[in-house]
Queue: 2 jobs
Job 1
Amino acid sequence: MASLLLALAVGCTGLYAGFMLIFQTGIMPALARLTDAEFVVVMRRINEAVPRAVFLLVFLGVVAFPLAAFLVPGDGRTGTQKWLVLAGLACAVLNHVVTVGGNVPLNNALAASESTGDEPSAVRAAFERRWNGFHRVRTPLVTAAFGLLTAAAVL
């Protein structure tokens, strides 16, 4: 059971790390080229589309599966493997803290600005730089979690 949970942890974390990396290296640089009005509308639509069932399963699995893999007695798992799983879990939790404490409130403010009629330039100025800053913190965290969990799985 522990090996299956670790495999699920690696899979979910790898999917999420890839999603974060694509956002950082492809989506946000592409959006940076849009006008303020275009940026605001597209980012709002992205924020509406992303939190669906599959994404939420992966998002929650990034913490739940490493936690379960750590708590379930390992099939002959070494102390090093246990510490790698714990370190991966810690990185995943920190990623979620940044996401929930930083990116999500900015996403919510962006959504709320749709009904206020604020100028797109002001909305973008309040959102983009801060959101990207949080994203530059959470992407390496979840990438580290993936690396640590993968190392635990292959040792």
Job 2
Amino acid sequence: MTGSHRPLRDPAVTAVIDKLVAAQQYPADDPRNGLERDPHEYRDYGFSIAPEQGDLIYLLCRGIRATRTVEFATSVGLSTLYAAAAVRDNGGGTVIGAELVPAKVAAARRNLAEAGLADYAEIREGDARVTLRDLGGEIDFALIDGWLGAEPSLAREVIELVAPYLRIGGYVLNDNAEPDFLAWIRDPANGFVSVSLPLHGGTELCVKVAAPYGGVGR
């Protein structure tokens, strides 16, 4: 795990996190490296963030007083637990999650309920390029961590949907460092600055500093 000191201290939440981390496994063929493979075939594998990334999500969301966040993809809800705990501890809010595989949607909802956080998350089942088109208003934080594949990557397509909703000063955390995502987020014309962090093999932390779209996140 991440050592004895953890920023998220709720025992009900950390017990579920510990259970999910202990159960986490990856198949030998690593299907995340190809969109031609069917994600439904890997419904029993919880492809998720690392605990140190979760700690960062919790701290960032607490620090900016986040009340509305979005994530792609939810998987079994590990990342959702960190974000939902943060918005709860900030006084209330919602995490909007996107997950394609119905079995994982059900698992995420069970895990959130077990942690006492079901009221702070809305998991949308289906293709994130459809389910995240309307976020219903401004958001404070986004996690981009979905299925890998050929360009354009899903990460690139989803960030272009989400970015107009992100407020100035809001953060994006990207787990997989997809080349076309990095090219887009590092282009000053798109309104972000970012840095690569040595977490989980490479994590891009991005902050929105301008709103070139003229969207709701101005």
